[in-house]
Structures are given as structure tokens and as C-alpha cells.
Specification:
Length: about 120
């Protein structure tokens, strides 16, 4: 049995996929304060990354670490939405899914913080 929603191909599929992606970014930005805050932090940090990085590799690492935070936050929000769609009832598996997704966000923030601290240390010494 095939999925009736998977019939698009070629440019039509790409255009629809881009629209769905834009809708997802918009939903995350308007509905998730953490994603909104991290987006603004990333936008403010772009010029700082260009100043702080000694070469294109460091700039890419600085910007990439910020992008990873946004990606993980999007996945966290998706998991929370899916769990809430199933039920608002308190359940150990729902809690575990949300806690693990939150831990992934924490680890991405620690990674970004470490990359930025290392670049700042190298730049300022």
C-alpha cells in the first residue's frame, strides 16, 4: 500500500517540500519562545563569528554550532508536539521522550558554548 501523500515528484515535490519547511520554521518561531530566542542569538552572533574566527574554518565551526542548536531545538519542538498530539495525560513514556529531547538541546548548547569559548580563548590570548 502506497502513501497517497507521496505522489509528487521533481520540481513540484521540491517546491512543496520548501513550503512545508517554511511553515515549520514559521510555526517554531511563532510558537516556541526558546526557538525564537535562539534564532535572535544566532543572528546577533553571525557578525561576531566573522570577527572572532581566525579563518573560514573557525567561522564555519562557530556558525555551525549555532545552526546545530537551532536544528536540535526544532526536533525537540517536533517531539513535544507529537507527544502532546497523542495525549496531555501524564505518562512516563511521554515524560521520557520530552526529557530526552530536552537533554539533546542542552548538549547542543554545551557544544556551541564550548566551540565559542575555545574560539574566544584563541582570539584573545
Amino acid at each position: 500500500m502506497s502513501n497517497p501523500h507521496k505522489g509528487r515528484t521533481g520540481l513540484d515535490r521540491i517546491l512543496h517540500a520548501a513550503g512545508y519547511s517554511w511553515a515549520g520554521l514559521k510555526a517554531a518561531y511563532t510558537g516556541e519562545s526558546a526557538f525564537r530566542q535562539e534564532t535572535w542569538l544566532a543572528l546577533v552572533a553571525v557578525p561576531l563569528a566573522c570577527w572572532l574566527g581566525r579563518d573560514w574554518v573557525q567561522v564555519a565551526l562557530l556558525l555551525g554550532s549555532l545552526l546545530i542548536v537551532l536544528i536540535v531545538e526544532l526536533l525537540n519542538s517536533a517531539i513535544e508536539a507529537a507527544v502532546d498530539r497523542v495525549s496531555f495525560e501524564l505518562h512516563e513514556l511521554s515524560k521520557r521522550a520530552k526529557d530526552i529531547a530536552s537533554a539533546a538541546v542542552l548538549l547542543s548548547l554545551l557544544l556551541a558554548g564550548g566551540v565559542w569559548a575555545a574560539a574566544a580563548w584563541q582570539h584573545l590570548r
